[in-house]
Amino acid sequence: METMARIQPxxxxxxxxxxxxxxxxxxxxxxxxxxxxxxRYLAQSxxxxxxxxxxxxxxxxxxxxxxxxxxxxxxxxxxQKGILRADPEPGVYPYTQSFASPDTGEHCVRRxxxxxxxxxxxxxxxxxxxxxTLSGPKADRRALLQATRTHFGQIFMLYSxxxxxxxxxxxxxxxxPIFEATDEYGTTHRLFQETDGAVIARLHDHMASQKLVIxxxxxxxETALQWRNECNGQAPHRPDHPWNWVMMTFINADAxxxxxxxxxxxxxxxxxxxxxxxxxxxxxxxxxxxxxxxSLKPGNAAEVWTALRPRLAAAGATAIAMVLQGISHPSLLRxxxxxxxxxxxxxxxxxxRRLNLVVLHRLALDLGLGITPEMVREERHLRYLRSAPEALxxxxxxxxxxxxLVNAIPASQVRExxxxxxxxxxxxTDFFPKLLTGLTMYRVE
Length: 445
Hints:
With about 450 residues, the chain is α+β, with helices and mostly antiparallel strands. The chain has 2 domains: about 5-260 and about 430-445, no CATH class; about 265-405, 2-Layer Sandwich (Conserved hypothetical protein from pyrococcus furiosus pfu- 392566-001, domain 2), CATH 3.30.1760. It has 16 helices and 21 strands. Strands 1, 4, 5, 6, 8, 9, 10, 11 and 12 form a 9-stranded mixed sheet that branches. A 6-stranded antiparallel sheet has the order 15-17-16-19-14-18, with helices on both faces. A hairpin with a 6-residue loop joins β4 and β5 (about 105-120). α4 crosses α5 (about 135-150) and α10 packs across α15 (about 390-395).
């Protein structure tokens, strides 16, 4: 029998807004919190969730007193004080985000819902990944989960329904938010609650046929998967198996408001830099179109990006914009039509070979510049930048040797690669905005 996507309602632990102000207690995802952000969160409220999800390590930490045991202590204390309360009825939580697109300024609304999702092995072909994970973050999240027995962050799941029928009834009923806050990036987050069993049953039936692709939260998903296996081994007699579920936010990839931002590449510190020699090497793999009408110099990076961006967008999905230290004008790179990409990228699937970043990493960075996959993993000579003007300015002032600027990879292509069983290079996607942490919590009791 084919394995199906499973969802179910739950009684979320949530902040009691009679005790705290909504905007003072929620955070961005733990891996997006900078030290400055953490200090700001700490100052906002003694009950800000950063104390639990990203605590401070102390020099004298030991098995009985450490960042994870302190997290458990804060959580238990806040529950005892009524700062956090479990909803009396299980429900599904519609969730909307209203924001301005960073690229265009257009007002957007992204709509989805929070529910428990059944944890599945990737081999079951219900849940698909599009990124590789690292052992360090998973060990940290596992220690926090084991200490608190609580899921705090959302796993961002994409499903596909061009008709938008799956979520239509649920979202139409989402009228009165139970939580509303505007974050530091200007996004207004609204949470609603649906407890009607018939509505939830129809949603469950709609979702059963869906394939789910992890957009964000790979480390948390695989941590939950590992913990599920451990708990099932330790307590196989327990009939409810609550650890078989994890909080997910489900977003329709075919609905409006799904924004994916590009992440650009900056190269620095290569010995014996020679822009002309680099260009000659890249000519073996790319058609290179110089753009002499655009000239980069210190201080005009934003102006250059304004002129360059539409040219890059019009050049096609696999096109790459390049600026080299020593050449003032940018160029557009397109893979040569004569290339045998299957031979050059034997480890990549056809879907992966259509990705601009796969082409960039293999042909430009590895074969062109000698930046090997190992060096990429270790981030030697390579920085990832969200801001194209920042990358351009780095080259203009001599801090960077090359900037490679890319178009965003659309969500449809992310799904295509994932469903084909492939993964993408690190920092391939940046879904905006992020899902807030602290809206709902799932406590495995």
